[in-house]
């Protein structure tokens, strides 16, 4: 390829002209009619990466037109590696298509730029001597350095209007919304519920996407700690869990218990206390649905709290036709790092003594302690280089729970605005979670080991349960759901068909629900179990 790049705009998008040689397409060089090169555009499909994008229209000497699309990806995998940095910035993935209605692919491959070609390419940048070249090289080096220096890069606490990954208004996005937010159906109602101990929480209801003759089973979704209904109704994903199941014809109820993003989160409580919130949500749903059975989807602390209610008899298993349990249930085993950090209650006690009972996910302004903590958390264990990021919110959440996702599974709009989707936690709540991890099973509100026994497990009889874990979950080891699965099958011999378990490889903890491709990788498995439960229930009624 021989071309001249002329930088014409301040955003460093540029015009490219010249020729392109490919013997498989034409014996003569192809002329670049219209060409644009976009430098360091955010890859909206990945949480923290940028691309160099090439879009060229090619014309052959025999009058054939082709579209040349190429890209280079720069991400945190290049950290402190000159060889990986050179490869990433000089390797171009290319697809060549015909500009017809089918966009037929006629060529695909990779182009590699040698040092000599790279030097020649620099000579083509603009005109006016050394100044334009120096300006571009400075811009180029600064953007690459952000990924090369990894944890030493600038920390970002929150997305701001005007950030360069702003999704433009269109049919899937409305002007004036937050960055990257898509236009989504609103709940038909939001209701304040009061638990038996007087704590107020909320529940939101979404109606089916389309009307149908046969009313399908309603679904109750219970999120985990420090999040809320948005975990299932992600406004930054094309298809979130609420979208997916309302499109299938289900009415979806999503509750936000006291441990979520709510006014009650800063009060002292435990997962066992929160079981009363889930009971209140179930009672509301049953009233709305005239006592019909429903299907429950519960995640993390929502699973733990639900298991407490089932085991102590507060929540009748007979109300449900079945349930999906995500990551943990009445058994709990921490991941490797969490098993060290959570092997003692000393850490939350020390934090509480220094900074108070509330751990904020967004760094408080003018707090020297939290500023120092942010600098330390740059180096908190996160796994491979690809899991390194510059989000202070992501770091703080990881310190609290462990890395909550595989970064490749989050799109940029989600990762850049984590402050809207996750909040902090009370240290008393965290202490109870640590004790649960030490005992490897759920505890009551006083922290006593009184719940997991044969008599209490007997209350789950006849309830179909689908358990799953993310294969790369470092919050709770995937063996956690295996322990629950084994306990259930042992407790109810002859009823093994009621229990299913799977592991979604390449997923972590929260990305099973918040991930950009969860609708393809995770939700169908939940749907399959739900429909099996409905068929089973219908068979019992005959």
Automatic annotation (TrEMBL):
GO MF terms held by the record: oxidoreductase activity
Cofactor(s) required for function per UniProt: FAD
Key words, A-Z: FAD, Flavoprotein, Oxidoreductase
InterPro entries to which the protein is assigned, alphabetical: AB_hydrolase_fold (IPR029058), Cholesterol_Oxidase (IPR052542)
PANTHER family (alphabetical): CHOLESTEROL OXIDASE (PTHR47470), FAD-DEPENDENT OXIDOREDUCTASE 2 FAD BINDING DOMAIN-CONTAINING PROTEIN (PTHR47470:SF1)
Name of the protein in its database record: Alpha/beta-hydrolase
Naturally occurring in which organism (per UniProt): Collybiopsis confluens
């Amino acid at each position: 390829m021989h071309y001249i790049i002329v930088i014409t705009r301040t955003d460093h998008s540029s015009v490219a002209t010249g020729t392109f040689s490919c013997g498989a397409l034409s014996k003569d060089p192809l002329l670049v009619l219209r060409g644009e090169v976009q430098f360091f555009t955010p890859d909206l499909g990945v949480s923290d990466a940028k691309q160099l994008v090439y879009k060229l229209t090619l014309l052959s000497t025999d009058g054939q037109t082709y579209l040349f699309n190429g890209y280079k990806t720069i991400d945190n995998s290049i950290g402190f590696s000159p060889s990986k940095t050179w490869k990433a910035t000089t390797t171009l993935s290319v697809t060549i298509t015909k500009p017809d209605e089918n966009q037929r692919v006629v060529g695909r491959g990779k182009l590699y730029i040698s040092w000599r070609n790279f030097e020649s390419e620099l000579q083509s940048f603009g005109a006016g001597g050394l100044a334009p070249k120096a300006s571009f090289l400075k811009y180029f080096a600064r953007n690459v350095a952000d990924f090369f220096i990894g944890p030493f890069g600038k920390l970002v606490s929150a997305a701001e209007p005007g950030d360069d990954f702003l999704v433009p208004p269109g049919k899937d996005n409305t002007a004036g919304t937050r960055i990257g937010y898509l236009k989504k159906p609103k709940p038909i109602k939001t209701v304040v519920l009061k638990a038996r101990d007087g704590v107020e929480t909320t529940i939101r209801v979404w109606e089916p996407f389309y009307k149908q003759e046969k009313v399908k089973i309603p679904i109750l979704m219970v999120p985990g700690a420090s999040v809320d209904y948005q975990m299932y109704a992600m406004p930054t994903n094309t298809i979130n869990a609420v979208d997916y199941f309302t499109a299938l014809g289900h009415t979806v109820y999503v509750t936000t218990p006291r441990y979520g993003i709510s006014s009650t989160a800063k009060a002292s409580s435990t997962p066992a206390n929160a079981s009363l919130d889930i009971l209140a949500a179930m009672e509301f749903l049953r009233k709305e649905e005239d006592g019909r059975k429903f299907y429950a989807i519960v995640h993390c602390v929502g699973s733990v709290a639900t298991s407490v209610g089932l085991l102590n008899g507060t929540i009748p298993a007979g109300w449900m036709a079945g349930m999906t349990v995500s990551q943990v249930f009445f058994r709990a085993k921490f991941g490797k790092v969490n098993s060290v950090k959570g092997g003692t209650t000393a850490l939350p006690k020390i934090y509480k003594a220094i900074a108070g009972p509330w751990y904020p996910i967004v760094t408080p302004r003018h707090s020297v302690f939290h500023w120092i903590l942010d600098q330390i958390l740059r180096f908190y264990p996160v796994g491979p280089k690809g899991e390194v990021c510059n989000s202070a919110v992501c770091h703080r959440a990881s310190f609290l729970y462990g890395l909550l996702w595989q970064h490749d599974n989050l799109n940029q709009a989600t990762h850049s605005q984590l402050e809207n989707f996750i909040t902090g936690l009370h240290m008393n709540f965290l202490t109870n979670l640590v004790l649960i991890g030490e005992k490897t099973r759920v505890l009551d509100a006083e922290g006593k080991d009184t719940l997991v026994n044969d008599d209490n497990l007997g209350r789950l009889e006849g309830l179909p349960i689908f358990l799953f874990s993310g294969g790369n979950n470092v919050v709770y080891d995937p063996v956690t759901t295996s322990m629950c699965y084994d306990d259930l099958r042992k407790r109810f011999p002859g009823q093994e068909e009621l229990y299913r378990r799977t592991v979604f490889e390449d997923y972590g903890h929260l990305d099973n629900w918040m991930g950009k491709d969860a609708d393809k990788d995770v939700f169908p498995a939940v749907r399959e179990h739900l429909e099996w439960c409905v068929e089973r229930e219908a068979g019992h009624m005959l």
